[in-house]
Structure formats: C-alpha cells, structure tokens
Amino acid sequence: MLNTCNKCKSVKYCNAACKKRHRHKHKKECERRIAELHDEKLFKQPPQDEDCPICFLRMPTLRTGSTYMSCCGKLICSGCFYANANIDLAKQLCAFCRTPASKLDDVIIKRMYKRAEGGEADAFFRLGHYHNQGLKGLRQDRAKALELWYRAVELGSAKAYFNIGIAYYTGNGVAMDEQKGEQYFELAAMRGNALARHNLGCTEEELGNVERATKHWMIAVGSGYSGSLERVRRLYLNEHVTKDDFTKALVAYQEYLNEVKSDQRDEAASADDKYKYY
C-alpha cells in the first residue's frame, strides 16, 4: 500500500522509509500545497444564513437584523418581530410558536438552558454572551462564557468562533494571543461571519497584502457588511483596485439589500435604530 504525505495529501511514497528519505526535498512543495489548500477553504463562498422562518426572506446578516426567541430557538427577522410586537402588544405571543412572551430574566435564562440541553448552538452562544457581559441576571464570568462558546463552536456557531477570536485578540478571559485570534476569525469567516471576514481583510491590508484584503472584503460585501464596501471604495480612490472591482462590490451589496428588504423591515428600521439591517 502506498504511503501518502499526511500533511498535503498530494504525494505518495512506496513506503514509510521512502517518505522519510524524501522529506527534506518535499518540505517546500508540501508547505506551498498546504497554503493553497488552506486558501481554497478560506476564500470559498461561505454559506448563507437561513431565511426568516416567517416571511421566508433572506435573514439580514448583521446582529441587529434578527431577534432570538428563547421559547422555540428560532431567529425572527426584525420586520416580523416588530410587526408581531405591534399586533400582539396585549398578548405578547411568540411570532413563530405562539408561546406567551416574557421579559423576566429568570424565565428567559431558564428557556435558554432548556434549548441548550437540546444541543442548540444559538442557545450556548447567547448564554455565553450573557455571562461575558453579566446580563440577564447572570454574574459576569468570562471563563464560563468561553466554556459555553466552545460548546457552541462544536455545534457549528460562526458567531461563537468570532467571539472566541475576540477573546484571544484582546486577552478577554484568556492570555492574549493575536495569532490564535486570527485563526478563530478564519474559522468564523469560513462559516459566514461577515465581521470576522472584514477583520481578516484589515489585517491583510496592514501587512501590505492588498489583493488578499480585497478578496476578504468582497466576500464580506456580498454578506451585507457596509464597512467592507467602504474599504473597497477607499482602495478604488487610491487606485489599488480597478473601477470594475468597485462596481462588482456595489452590485453585490445592492443585491444583498434587495434580498433582505421588505416593507415590514423598513418600518421597523424607521421606528427604532436597533432594527436596522444595513
């Protein structure tokens, strides 16, 4: 049986001894191929968030575009949440499962822990956020927050990957390690987190890697992050990218806005800044 390089997986040897003898010759090619494989994953178009379960429109990417319902674990877009709050002001029922709503912290936390027991990534992520900030009656405990976020990443939460990256990047509850923070940003970006993608672009620009920075920002623009559009615009004004590149960014951002736009969401945005989705 042939013996394959266990790093790049692209070279096969007749046996382990042959692989060992050839290691010094293969090292540079192996590192180059590993970097190529990494970039293929890193710059692959990320998955799109699920549609709103009520209006079936694309869910706004940014945090303010949706609300988590602790009763059923559903993310409801800002428009549907706002419209339901107006309609059911007296009854205050969940827009999705029709469970009576509650603003009591202990009720919300109890519901979230129940969702977490069922293996729900968003519940772990949000409980981690509350412990990190000391919200909803929970004591501030950043070690507990990280524990919950690690559980959320095991379940695929891009937002938890991003928050762990922030923790390492700033030394929040862990020893500061910017390199490790960048690694978690990459994991978050590959799972569709636009802000993590934007931050990676900023790091690449600081390193002088304008082409890689532009790749990151173009993906983030398609995910609705306006800050990345501004970065591409600045590169265009400084003649670091072409007019065609900037036009593609504008078109991608407008396509995102068209996909997430609705009268209900516009009404919510005009009523309260927290419902804005762009």
Describe this structure as you would to a colleague.
By secondary structure, the chain is mainly α. The chain folds into three domains: 50-101, Herpes Virus-1, CATH 3.30.40; 110-191, Tetratricopeptide repeat domain (Serine Threonine Protein Phosphatase 5, Tetratricopeptide repeat, Alpha Horseshoe); 196-258, no CATH class. It contains twelve helices and four strands, in the order E-E-H-E-E-H-H-H-H-H-H-H-H-H-H-H. The protein has helices spanning 16-42, 78-87, 105-117, 121-133, 142-154, 158-170, 178-190, 194-206, 210-222, 226-237, 243-260, 263-271, and strands at 3-4, 12-13, 66-68, 75-77. Strands 1-2 form a two-stranded antiparallel ribbon. Strands 3-4 form a two-stranded antiparallel sheet. Helix 2 (78-87) crosses helix 12 (263-271), helix 7 (178-190) crosses helix 8 and helix 9 (210-222) crosses helix 10. The longest helix is centred in the N-terminal third of the chain and has 27 residues, at 16-42. It starts with a strand and ends in a 7-residue tail after the last helix. The mean pLDDT is 88.
